[in-house]
Prior knowledge:
This protein has one helix at 7-10, and strands spanning 16-22, 25-26, 37-38, 46-50, 57-62, 65-70. A 4-stranded antiparallel beta sheet has the order 1-4-5-6, with no helix packed on it. Strands 2-3 form a two-stranded parallel ribbon. The two termini are 16 Å apart. It is mainly beta. Helices cover 5% and strands 37% of the residues. The longest helix has 4 residues, at 7-10.
Amino acid sequence: MNASNIERVQELELIKGQELGEITRQTSNKWLFKDGAATELPVGTKIYESNDDDTYNLIIELEEEEIVYVVLLEG
């Protein structure tokens, strides 16, 4: 989820770290949603870790802009 407008995330002053991967496919089908899949981010979008200890805060690079995303987990 794009978290760039969430105040508590803005206060963290996150910095882009090591590249973790990239979006390899788009899908809205829950059965095809695996590593590298996204519902809205385009294929080729780079995903980076952030400088905090929370593995659920990621930074993506889209059109030369860095955007903080929060990972949403589903069971």
